[in-house]
Amino acid sequence: MNGDDAPGALVLSGGGTTMVSTDALLAQAARLALLRADARDWQARLERIRALEALPAPAWSAEDPGLAVFAARQTIDAVEARSGELAESLVVAAEAYGQADRTAAMLARMTGAWLGHSLGRLAPLVFAAAIPAATAGAVAWLLGGLLRRDAPGTARSRGPGTARSPGPDVAGLWIGDPRLLANPAVVALVRVLVSSVDDVAAGAVGVPFPVSAALGDEGAGLFGVTTTAAGTLAVARSIGMLRETPVTVTRVGKPRPARPPGGFADLAARIPRVSTGGPQVRIERYGGAADAAWLVYIGGTAEWSPVSAGEPWDMTSNITAVAEQGAGSYRAVVQAMHEAGIRPTDAVIPVGHSQGGLVAAQLAAAGEFNTVAVATFGAPVAKVPVPPGLPVIAVEHSEDLVPALGGAARDAAARLTVSRELYADAAVPASPLPAHGLVTYRETARMIDASPAPALADFRTLLAATVGTAPGVASRWRGTRSGSSGAQ
User: Fold this and answer.
1) pTM
2) Are the beta carbons of 397 and 444 closer than 8 angstroms?
3) What domain of life (predicted)?
4) Which residues pair with 10 in a beta bridge?
């Protein structure tokens, strides 16, 4: 929603509704609805006062209080009618924009699927079979090179005396302009392309396009990003890459006191930062033995090599998680949760950034724990099936490439997506993937806390009710890969 929206405004979509709107517009609609409710309350009061009037209206004099009550009733009736009309108009406008947005997204998916299918029909089968691996390899190489480059303010920046990290120099791909990868149009294109890779393979093996569309992302969802990731793993593992291993977890340091989070800013601030050798998971416990509630914070990718080493938060886990095959990072988080003492009936709210957000959503989808809400920041969670009725907040920046790597969502209305365009009227920082950094998402989280949008206020209320007001205890955990890197 552009038009008169302020640069960087929060845009809300989904959350069980068909609306797409800014948080300010939704908040205004909510205020008008409250005004209408107050007007109806005053209508009822004035009606009770009028019932006490002994004289009928024709007998009123200029000084009769009944005349003043009648005038007040007329004014309140106008307020009630006008506020209701304005509130309904705002909702209708948001729903219309949402319908147009979903129609455009559907047409983009269908067009991408048709083009991919057509390419598959023209390409040899061997070429098509290699496309998933080539796509994943190119993405891994590109992101790995970007995140290894030295850039001020990034988590991977070199410290004094630190040698340059090995990796490809992809500065040439930027063509001197970082907007190439921090462009909402490029991000939208990548989302469509990722969702269309399976259609290339379907076209190559001769599956008719209507059948491919009916079974793929555009239809039943039996094929799509998940199956493409699975095909990528099959090809990559045959040449010694992206191989999963057993994982182990250890507690880092001693438990520390923790105060209940007050909102999204606190949630984002407690997600572990990417660091070599540091903890990837933070677990907070609140309440007593009978009513324990837990917050599980999960960090993002720390290693971008396609060859599994000691770090479970790596490219192997990225692809394996998308393929829904039990990523090392997912298994490490589950182990840490068990060792921390989380029981199946305890209330849990997982929170994560990037790969950590993907793991958080998959924890909710698996159903092993009693997940009561989920919050993700910059995570490729579009294809993770959201349990019906579960409050899920997915925060994404329009220029962030990483959420697009999860493809296009078919059940977008089931989760509340909060998006923000960072650089609409500002220069893009000269750093790799600037819109994906945890620092920028923490800034957006503070904006979310300041938003009066009802859906965001409801999530904050749920968070407060879950953890309570008493101090808790926080523990930090580190997962490591063990065993042979050739394990499957």
Assistant:
1) 0.75
2) yes
3) Bacteria
4) 420
